[in-house]
Design brief:
- The longest helix has 25 residues.
- The strands form four sheets. This protein has a five-stranded parallel sheet with strand order 7-6-5-11-12, with helices on both faces.
- The radius of gyration is 30 Å and the shape is globular.
- It contains 23 helices and 14 strands.
- By secondary structure, the chain is an alpha/beta fold.
């Protein structure tokens, strides 16, 4: 990249001009502000103690040296202590010629490192996937593509939370009020059916708590003594004891849920390399906990429960096994970490989990370290914010969540009505139109969620997300379709692709140069998104690229250009922009339609 060469030459200039050796860290190099003429700006203020001259004189001397020693620099200007460097048109044209049409532009070759294990989704089998899960899945999938683009081998894994007290609540409700209902008989997906019984349990559970509180119990006492929770806990004990009837019901209900999950994943375009199940991983967790107890790394209390004492580390005690021998979430996470390490020997294990679990993962890492696991320091929690709707927060127990399936259906319908209203599918056959509506609807959903910094909470507005103007998926998709239309017209006029990639020796207009500069940034953007683990960096980059291209398209003729050199330049630039838009959107898990 030219930035590295500029830094190296700046260090050489300082050595030659002022007989001082400096580190590149002392050189402040940044992209020139839009309102100032230049491509890169060198800040000379930190160098004044070396030059012993004024900021203007120092900048002038360094500028003269760089322009004479670097053919890439056409000219420069000095504003106070800022040296603004202007790269030559030849530099940008050479970049365009070298990289347009290059399939791996922006992507690194596969590294020889050990793989990265990336966990995302992690649903519970007591309810369907909802809007919060959608953000999780989209972040996980996009991050896997970004890490691959940075040369990492990525293993996408899913941990299905298929056991525990929450699952037992749904099982108990089904036993009491299910009347052997099946998804087929009910006419709904299996995950939706089981979710109905989870909500039903909590409705009756709250009634019992209210009744006990009227008799004088505190809310905390009532929650522990309510008959339904005691029955659910008994089901959990039976399950861990492998009671045949309990296990059979559990398998049947989970099977219904898995069928439902698979349909949702398919609609979202999500897949995994390996799926772990808590019903298996908790056993490894128990084994590791008992080993830790024997080695006096953990403590056992009088009631038989086992704990990790983290008070010397500024935290508290953490329950690992209950007094009745049943496990908790931490039990299975300990076991899962060990199984993944045994399976893949990864260089790192990344968990895509909401920020309400920050403390949990801090504790997990500390407990694994206490147990002597060398991979403890290689665990990274990608903590993301919650998703809310205009009407407020969602609550699974009260049945007020927005199901992923329902949301996607709404997105498809909204995409259809908006697209038909704007006439963007008028010339397409019906089947192609249907596929277009799905592509636009999913693109709107994915882009709207991924353009927000993962660390931030966000408000999702389905209607706002489907807008063909502004920072939205459909706007970028339409820009790509416009590019493809222009290229098809060029081909139909007899311009072969070889002509598009011919030699370029013309000068650049400001908008042409600005577009090339944006394309030049793509490899660094991909790298930055990988380092920061933020698809939002890709999303906002591709929006800026699409927005800039539309201005270029409106103000500069392409097909009507009569000068051959300029025509070749512009058609190459159009084609290259389309390639980078497609790559960027694919990194977000979004398809771009060739026609709209």
């Amino acid at each position: 990249m030219i930035e590295q060469k500029l830094l190296e030459k700046a260090c050489t200039a300082i050595h030659q001009l002022y007989e001082q050796k400096v580190s590149q860290d002392l050189i402040g190099l940044e992209k020139t502000k839009r309102e100032i003429i230049g491509d890169y700006t060198l800040v000379v203020f930190p160098l004044l103690k070396l030059s012993h001259k004024s900021p203007e004189a120092t900048a002038q001397e360094i500028g003269n040296y760089l322009s004479q020693s670097m053919p890439e620099i056409a000219e420069f200007n000095v504003i106070k202590g800022f040296l603004n460097l202007i790269l030559s048109d030849k530099f940008w044209l050479d970049f365009l010629k070298k990289n347009a049409g290059k399939s791996q532009f922006g992507f690194r070759k596969l590294r020889p490192d050990r793989p990265v294990v990336l966990e995302f989704s992690s649903p519970n089998t007591n309810k369907p996937l909802h809007l919060g899960h959608i953000r999780n899945n989209l972040l996980g999938h996009s991050l896997s593509e970004i890490l691959k683009a940075n040369g990492f081998k990525v293993i996408k894994v899913n941990l299905v939370n298929d056991r525990g007290i929450h699952i037992c609540k749904s099982m108990l409700a089904y036993q009491k009020w299910g009347n052997n209902e099946t998804p087929f008989a009910a006419g709904i997906k299996g995950d939706h059916l089981i979710g109905k019984y989870y909500v039903l349990f909590n409705k009756h559970f709250r009634d019992e708590i209210h009744s006990l509180m009227e008799k004088g119990l505190t809310e905390e006492e009532a929650e522990k003594q309510a008959p339904l929770i005691i029955e659910a806990q008994e089901i959990l004990r039976k399950w861990e004891a492998r009671d045949n009837g309990t296990v059979d019901l559990w398998r049947k209900m989970n099977g219904w849920v898995y069928d439902g999950f698979n349909k949702t994943y398919q609609n979202l375009g999500i897949s995994f390399d390996k799926i772990y199940y808590e019903s298996n991983t908790y056993l490894m967790g128990k084994e590791l906990i008992m080993e830790g107890l024997e080695r006096e790394m953990l403590i056992k209390k009088e009631d038989g429960s086992i704990w990790a004492d983290l008070r010397n580390e500024g935290l508290d005690e953490k329950l690992l096994l209950r007094s009745d021998g049943t496990s908790v979430y931490m039990t299975q996470d300990i076991g899962t970490a060990q199984l993944r390490y045994d399976d893949f020997r990864p260089s790192s294990m990344i968990y895509v989990v909401g920020n309400e679990q920050n403390y949990h993962f801090d504790v997990l890492q500390r407990i694994l370290k206490k147990l002597g696991k060398e991979y403890a320091s290689h665990i990274y929690h990608l903590s993301y914010g919650m998703v809310e709707l205009p009407q407020g927060k969602m609550k699974s127990r009260e049945g007020t969540v927005v199901d992923a399936d329902d949301l996607m259906d709404e997105m498809f319908k909204t995409a259809e009505s908006t697209t038909r209203e704007l006439g963007k599918a008028d010339e397409l056959p019906e089947e192609e139109s249907r596929q277009l509506f799905r592509t636009i609807g999913l693109g709107a959903l994915k882009y709207f969620i991924l353009k927000v910094d993962p660390k931030k909470n966000m408000l999702f507005d389905p209607k706002e997300s489907i807008d063909f103007n502004g920072n939205t998926g459909p706007f970028i998709q339409y820009t790509f379709a416009r590019i493809q239309s222009l290229l098809r017209k060029a081909m139909s006029s007899g311009y072969a692709k070889e002509r598009v990639q011919g030699s370029l020796h013309t000068s650049l207009l400001p908008l042409e140069k600005e577009t090339i500069k944006k394309l030049y940034l793509f490899p660094e953007i991909v790298k930055q998104a990988g380092v920061e683990m933020s698809p939002a960096i890709i999303a906002n980059y591709v929006y800026d690229l699409a927005k800039g291209f539309n201005q270029f398209y409106q103000e500069i003729p392409v097909l009507k250009e009569e000068n051959k050199e300029k025509f070749v330049l512009r058609l190459t630039l159009v084609s290259f922009t389309g390639e980078v838009i497609q790559k960027s959107m694919n990194l977000l898990g979004i398809d771009v339609p060739p026609k709209m």
